[in-house]
Write a structure and sequence with these properties.
Chain lengths: ~450, ~325
């Protein structure tokens, strides 16, 4: 099944790439809205400068998120047509609602915000960014509602050979989404917080635009500390929830082959998926029982027992996801989160002592921590999606049944290579622009160049 | 009215909004390198759609979402069947969107001319492909009894559908030129007018060929309403051409908008109650009955759409009102 593998790779690449930009959009839109609100309330020009500086970086990131998001919407039909047929009755609704309630607001009001500085009152202008920020986060709710159904189906009946919606309220109050939505949005807030912190640290190290970035750093520090604490709390809650509704995902992410009471937590393991065992492990006794159930004397089901249950329930087949990458992804996510916490607390400590700018190594640590939220976001989603395999819709449809039957490997190769190349080029362009504006700092930039277009460089002039 | 019929109408409405609004965006993008002789002129031309193009594009995304929600089999068959065409369109839309946003963030002339290039290509490809797609829907494509598209990419390209692609490309270009006559000033406005006058001649020829081939290659005219709508579109186009020739720009744009609206209505009306015609067996066509969602989902989506689409129209219209002034080099805000 070459097509299946290719389609999965393509979806993985598109989704991971799209989700490099989404979290920053979620968080930074709110930060820009808050900064502009401060400007409206106080009339302080520095807040306006901050709004414009962070706003410009926001726009570069937003554009990338939008264009990769369109691919996302089309992919469900292009590569996964049987999924679309089986699930359209349920999955299409939140997608259409996302467009109707969120995408229109985002793009219409962002256009107004970009071009409306002289056409709107200050208050309306700031309100536009608030609408963008809220719509962006609302869109996260809709798409996570759709994803939550794939993880934990609710409010449906199997009819006419497909899943049909019977209860819209159940769909949007799926307990799964109330675990996933906070964790995802908070990861966005943390990503944006680290973005602000790292760029501020960059200038504080160089002692350029110090007042400006001192203020940004302070905001970023408070913002990130609070959202990181909440993020960790929500992650813990989500893990406990997963233990109940998707025990296989938890067991696989922990490489727990045998049911154990109490269950240990493996910090590292050498996993033998073939023989369904771990050759060596470094473990903390009873820790997994505590994490999963808040109680050291409780059992946690192992992969082998869950597999037996699934075979009894769904018939013969392989129900074990790829344990090794899940195990390590989960650990990388947790390690990245912990490292972020360490960095933020250290920076917070020196900031509180008034010594931060005298400690360049702390500032450098903040700067070099910028990849951490991105690593955590990607590995976190890998656990969520990879841990659901072999299902595309848990218990209802397997990924192999969902792939488009009429799309050949050649077509997927063409689009896979094409998209990947364009994504790489766009990433270079976006990173180039971001680093340019970051280095430049908050300066008034001329609206346009007066240089004439070079002859020969343009096609028609 | 049956809900599936209502959703056919709503889908038509979404495509009308999409072709009307993105139609002139595509046209502006196509005309950009021809009308703008230097960097500032090009910036002015881009700014004529700068605040609104992204909101306009959402009509396409919503139409896609609505297909998924209301007619999942249409979404599945169309998107997997037209795979490489959609891949090309997505590539075009990606580079166009990024080029709009990134163009003025660097003043290297090569960066800017590359962006202008990408805006042109990114507008031209979807304009052609939508024409190819719409004409394929009504002409019929090889769909088997299991609703699967069993042709190849090249089966999508026939005389009729290529003419469809060219005609849509020219209609959008003309529509974009008329939009620009309303949004630009002085020399640039004059250039937009003369572009409309020149492109209009080609558009007239392409449209007549398209209408003629529609008689021979499709059953669109079997439906009287669709036939009237299509000839109505031609008449409106002639009116738009006359208006722009006489420098009645407001009237011209209204008439070119109605041309797009009537063309969309004509093709959807001709399709009804089918969504995609099967060229293998008429019984295998996708219809509003065999491709639709359950009545429960349709009723939920009906409530949502009837409540939200008018609201969208209000605030999107309001933003157009705020940016109603003509754009010139003095009030560039980018």
């Amino acid at each position: 099944m070459e097509e299946l593998m290719l389609a999965r790779w393509q979806f993985g690449i598109t989704t991971v790439y799209h989700f490099l930009f989404v979290p920053l959009t979620l968080g930074l839109s709110l930060i820009v809205a808050i900064l502009e609100t401060n400007y409206v309330r106080t009339g302080n020009e520095m807040y306006k400068q901050q709004t414009k500086f962070w706003g410009k970086l926001f726009l570069i990131n937003f554009a990338m998120g939008v264009v990769t998001g369109i691919v996302q919407e089309f992919h469900f039909g292009m590569n996964w047509s049987e999924y679309a047929r089986f699930m359209g009755d349920i999955f299409g609704a939140p997608l259409a609602l996302e467009a109707l309630t969120a995408f229109y607001l985002e793009s219409v009001f962002l256009g107004l915000w970009i071009f409306g500085w002289d056409r709107l009152s200050k208050g309306w202008h700031a309100a536009s960014m608030w609408i963008v920020a809220l719509a962006t986060n609302l869109s996260a709710f809709w798409i996570l509602t759709a994803n939550s159904f794939m993880q934990s189906p609710v409010g449906y009946v199997i009819n006419n050979g497909r899943a049909e919606m019977t209860d819209f309220v159940a769909l949007i109050t799926n307990p799964y989404v109330f675990n996933q939505f906070p964790h995802t949005v908070l990861s966005g807030l943390v990503t944006a917080g680290f973005f602000v912190l790292a760029i501020s640290a960059f200038h504080l190290i160089r002692k350029t635009h110090v007042d400006f970035f001192r203020a940004s750093f302070k905001l970023g520090l408070i913002w990130t500390t609070v959202s990181l604490l909440l993020l960790m709390g929500s992650g813990h809650a989500q893990t406990q929830f997963i233990a109940k509704v998707q025990p296989m995902k938890l067991a696989a992410a922990e490489a727990l082959w045998e049911t154990a009471n109490p269950a240990p937590f493996a910090i590292a393991a050498s996993i033998d998926e073939q023989n369904k065992t771990n050759m060596t492990e470094i473990k903390i006794p009873a820790m997994l029982s505590i994490l999963a159930n808040n109680n050291p004397n409780t059992p946690v089901k192992g992969i082998k027992d869950i597999e037996k249950e699934y075979i009894a329930q769904y018939g013969p087949g392989n129900y074990v996801p790829a344990v090794t990458p899940l195990f390590w992804s989960f650990r990388i996510m947790v390690a990245a989160g912990s490292a972020m916490m360490l960095v933020v607390l250290t920076a917070g400590f020196f900031w509180w002592r008034g010594q931060l700018e005298a400690k360049p190594f702390v500032l450098k640590a903040v700067l070099w921590s910028l990849p951490l939220p991105y690593i955590a976001n990607s590995t976190g989603w890998f656990v969520t999606e990879g841990g659901r395999q072999p299902w595309i819709v848990f218990g209802l449809q397997k990924a192999e049944q969902a792939v488009s039957p009429t799309v050949g490997a050649g077509s997927i190769w063409i689009s896979l290579i094409g998209f990947t190349l364009v994504y790489a080029l766009l990433a270079i362009a976006a990173v180039y622009l971001v680093q340019k504006f970051v280095r430049q700092g908050p300066v008034a930039t001329p609206a346009q160049t007066n240089k004439p277009a070079v002859k020969g460089a343009t096609l028609w002039s | 009215m049956e809900l599936s019929v209502l959703w056919f109408v709503l889908l038509t409405v979404l495509f009308i909004g999409f072709f009307f609004l993105e139609g002139f965006d595509y046209g502006v993008g196509i005309l950009l390198p021809f009308l703008g002789k230097n960097d500032i002129e090009r910036r002015v031309i881009i700014n004529s759609i700068g605040p609104v193009w992204d909101g306009n594009e959402v009509w396409m995304i919503t139409a896609g979402g609505a297909m998924f929600a209301a007619f999942p089999h249409l979404y599945a068959t169309l998107f997997s069947g037209f795979y490489l065409a959609l891949f090309l369109m997505l590539m075009a839309l990606i580079v166009r969107g990024v080029a709009f946003e990134f163009r003025s963030k660097d003043d290297n002339p090569a960066w800017r001319s590359t962006s202008d290039w990408l805006i042109f290509i990114g507008s031209a490809i979807p304009a052609v492909l939508w024409g190819v797609a719409v004409t394929n829907l009504i002409q019929g494509v090889p769909i088997n009894a299991k609703m699967q598209y069993v042709g190849s990419f090249f089966d999508l390209l026939s005389t009729y559908t290529l003419v469809g692609g060219i005609a849509f490309f020219l209609v959008f270009t003309f529509h974009g030129a008329l939009y620009l006559t309303l949004k630009l000033e002085g020399k640039l406005m004059e250039r937009a007018r003369s572009a409309a006058v020149k492109v209009g001649v080609l558009t007239a020829v392409a449209c007549l060929v398209l209408v003629g081939l529609t008689y021979t290659h499709t059953d669109l005219f079997a439906s009287t309403g669709a036939g009237i709508a299509l000839w109505g579109a031609v008449a409106l186009f002639v009116g738009a051409y006359g208006a722009v020739y006489c420098k009645r720009y407001g009237l011209g744009f209204i008439l070119s908008s109605l041309t797009v609206v009537f063309t969309t209505i004509a093709f959807f009306w001709g399709l009804f109650p089918r969504l995609m015609v099967s060229s293998l067996n008429p019984a295998w066509s996708l219809t509003i009955t065999n491709a639709a969602s359950s009545s429960y989902t349709l009723s939920i989506m009906t409530v949502a759409a009837l409540a939200l689409v008018p609201l969208v129209l209000v605030y999107q219209g309001w933003v157009y009102w705020i940016f109603r002034k003509r754009v010139n080099a003095k009030n560039l805000e980018y």
